[in-house]
Write a structure and sequence with these properties.
Chain C: InterPro entries: AA_ABC_transptr_permease_3TM, ArtM/GltK/GlnP/TcyL/YhdX-like, MetI-like, MetI-like_sf. The complex is a heterotrimer of chains A (about 280), B (about 210) and C (about 220). By secondary structure, chain B is mainly α. In chain B, about 85% of the residues lie in helices and about 0% in strands. Classes of the chains: A alpha/beta (about 280), B mainly alpha (about 210), C mainly alpha (about 220).
Chain lengths: ~280, ~210, ~220
């Protein structure tokens, strides 16, 4: 008995060694702007499960949505008509690690600008004004976020998003079930795992549009400006994306894209979007 | 690494408790179900054997995650509501029971066939012989492989993380997503799992040696 | 009925089949790599090189006793902090290989143990060195004994690949979720279809394993 117990004790040693190894590991940084400029190609991390922002088309594997169109427009604005935008699918959980790993050059994935995330990545100016809201089954007694503030109430949110913290703040008695992406969350709502799903209104309207039994209620109870993101320290890249955003706003491309994706959504205020 | 532990002690401990709870519940039920199907596989009735065989092959050959997701998202829509913890535990039970059935069946068949005949010629019924002669010996033989199944069960219980089952993996992952301190958080979570699985695995190896 | 015909359009089925292709591709690459590494580790652990074998054995035990999901998370979300960058595809393969080679090392070791120890002595008495005896006499027999558990391990690997859906590897389960994410009425049909696909592949392989067990066991 004591022999295998001793082995258990030694088990911890390699783990500590790994930690030390990690601490020593040096990460080399490259200049994303110079690299993407000479390649005339930007690799964007986008959503693949979010209607209106980024949704994969099963027919051809293409991802379609506002974020995708905007990223394409920015790429061409920065590096010319023949520049290429490549899209890699991310989830709320994977987007930051992918950016930090260098698998993607920039993120356009309905990502809220938060102080917490600002510590590890750099944001451009806000490009989309969203706010957190609730999606419920039609006829649900839940009308606003305060209705959730009861013990035993379960709300679905996506792991690693601001929605989780906000529910803790606005409805501290509710229990948050954190799932891995929006499809899983909505699936859980449909399966009755909770009474509401919460995230930004734009995403919820996208789901409600395809699922008429569900509706967005209670208006927005937070302010969630979306920003495009680059890895910490890529200031040159960020400055050029900001400039491209300004130019697209000035020449009307930006408004055209907003209108294309959000113009026909009932209950959605396009003006709010454009003034984040 | 230490700060991850001290700052989130209660969260991680809750997760650890849920992992243990789910594993133990799943172990008890899969032992019962698995043994029942193992016995069914060895009885003379062909119908019983086919039923047992079908059950075992189905749950052995479909990923645990698919079974669990099925219980989490599909069953509540058509049958009855089910929390993530319940769905995960049911998935674990069904999946593990098929492996336990195979283990126990091998144990029953390893017990000398002559013993069944001997017991029956001494006036025991088939079930009496099974209950008093065959099964006790079979179970002694399969304790180490069953122990290994339990270790697998603990490791596999991490699928609860996919269905908000509030287990160790779920808590650790939520923590890592919130703090971005993935490296240290996952290391701590790993140590928590090892505390359970590593001693068990050495103990099983020790038992195996003793039995041989 | 109409739901089924909408869910099982050729476009959706093709999308799923491509996912099955990714699943099999990742599993196949992983099993081959894990076999090579596992063989090496298993032999190292068996022969007992002072300290080295004990350390290797110990690392194997740690990896074997961790959930694969944790290893996947660690590879994809934590290792990049040390500067090791991987795509979902290579991270999935790396995590599976680390986990599987530890599992296979144990299979290799017990395979070698199962070969009659008298044979090593016999071979050495006939003038072979230890490593010659290992390579020409012991390992070939041990490998034959290992074939059935190896196939079982391959089946586990195929099933385990589904865990990589969490790091957005476009395998079978991920694709099913993409499809029902667009219309949640397809949920049941999608789960049913992928369960059938996994079952066909794994069950067929388990039949192969049984047949081999009869032949070599």
């Amino acid at each position: 008995m004591s022999k295998w117990f001793k082995k258990v004790l030694i088990a911890v040693v390699p783990l500590f060694l790994l930690t030390v190894l990690a601490a020593c590991g040096q990460k080399q940084t490259d200049n994303v702007y110079q690299r993407t400029k000479s390649a005339k190609k930007i690799v964007w991390g986008v959503k693949a499960d979010t209607r209106l922002f980024g949704l994969m088309n099963v027919k051809n594997g293409d991802i379609e949505g506002f974020d995708v169109d905007l990223a394409k427009a920015i790429t061409k604005q920065m590096y010319g008509k023949d520049a290429q935008a490549e899209f890699i699918q991310t989830t709320a959980k994977t987007k930051v690690p992918l950016l930090k790993n260098g698998n993607i050059d920039a993120v356009a994935a309905a990502m809220t600008i938060t102080d917490k995330r600002k510590k590890i990545i750099d944001y451009t100016q806000p490009y989309f004004g969203a706010g957190q809201s609730l999606l419920v089954k039609k006829g649900s007694p839940i009308k606003a976020v305060r209705d959730l503030n009861k013990a035993g109430t379960k709300v679905m949110a996506v792991k690693g998003t601001t929605a989780v913290d906000n529910i803790h703040k606005f409805a501290p008695k509710a229990k948050v079930l954190e799932l891995d992406d929006y499809a899983q969350s909505f699936t859980a709502l449909k399966s009755g795992q909770g009474v509401a799903m919460t995230t930004d209104n734009g995403i919820l309207y996208g789901i409600a549009k395809e699922n008429p039994d569900y509706e967005v209620v209670g208006g927005t109870f937070t302010n969630e400006p979306y920003g495009l993101a680059v890895d910490k320290g890529q200031t040159e890249m960020r400055a050029h994306i900001d400039k491209a955003l300004d130019q697209l706003q000035a020449n009307g491309t930006y408004s055209r894209l907003v209108e294309k994706w959000f113009g026909g959504i009932p209950g959605f205020d396009v003006k709010e979007v454009e003034q984040p | 690494m230490i700060s991850v532990l001290t700052n989130n002690w209660s969260t991680l401990l809750t997760g650890f408790g849920n992992t243990l709870l789910s594993s133990v519940i799943a172990l008890v039920f899969s032992l019962v179900i698995g043994s029942a199907f193992a016995i069914m596989e060895t009885v003379p009735s062909k119908v019983a054997r086919v039923i047992a065989h079908t059950y075992i092959e189905i749950f052995r050959n479909i990923p645990l995650l698919v079974i669990t997701m099925f219980f989490y998202v599909v069953i509540p829509q058509y049958v009855a509501p089910m929390t993530g913890f319940a769905a995960g535990t049911v998935g674990l039970t069904l999946y593990t029971s098929s492996f336990i059935a195979e283990t126990v069946r091998a144990g029953i068949q390893a017990v000398d066939i002559g013993q069944m005949e001997g017991a029956r010629s001494n006036g025991m019924t088939y079930w009496q012989a099974m209950r008093y002669i065959i099964l006790p010996q079979a179970f002694r033989l399969v304790i180490p492989p069953l122990g290994n199944q339990f270790i697998n069960l603990i490791k596999n219980s991490s699928v609860l993380a996919f269905v908000a089952g509030f287990d160790l993996m779920y808590q650790g992952d939520a923590l890592a997503s919130a703090t971005f301190d993935t490296f240290n958080t996952y290391l701590v979570v790993g140590v928590f799992y090892l505390v359970l699985t590593l001693p068990l695995s050495y103990y099983m190896r020790h038992l195996e040696k003793k039995l041989v | 009925m109409s739901i089924l015909s909408q869910a099982y359009t050729w476009i959706n089925l093709k999308f799923l089949l491509e996912g099955l292709g990714v699943t099999l591709e990742v599993s196949l690459i992983s099993i081959v790599l894990s076999f090579v590494i596992g063989l090496l580790l298993g032999v190292i652990r068996y022969v007992g090189i002072k300290y080295f074998s004990a350390i290797v054995g110990f690392i194997i035990d740690i990896i074997r006793n961790l959930p694969l999901l944790l290893i996947i998370f660690f590879t994809y979300f934590a290792l990049p902090k040390t500067g090791l960058r991987m795509s979902p595809l290579s991270a999935s393969i790396a995590a599976l290989v680390v986990f599987e080679s530890a599992m296979l090392a144990e299979i290799v070791r017990s395979g070698i143990i199962a070969v009659d120890p008298g044979q090593m002595e016999g071979a050495r008495a006939n003038g072979m060195t230890y490593w010659q005896a290992m390579w020409y006499i012991i390992l070939p027999q041990a490998l034959l004994k290992m074939i059935p558990p190896l196939v079982s391990q391959f089946i586990s690997l195929i099933k385990d690949t589904s865990l990589a859906t969490i790091i957005v590897l476009p395998e079978l389960l991920y694709r099913a979720q993409i499809i029902y994410g667009q219309d949640t009425r397809y949920m049941l049909p999608m789960y049913f279809m992928i369960a059938v696909m996994y079952f066909i592949v794994c069950f067929a392989l388990s039949l192969v394993a049984k047949r081999m067990e009869k032949k070599f066991g």
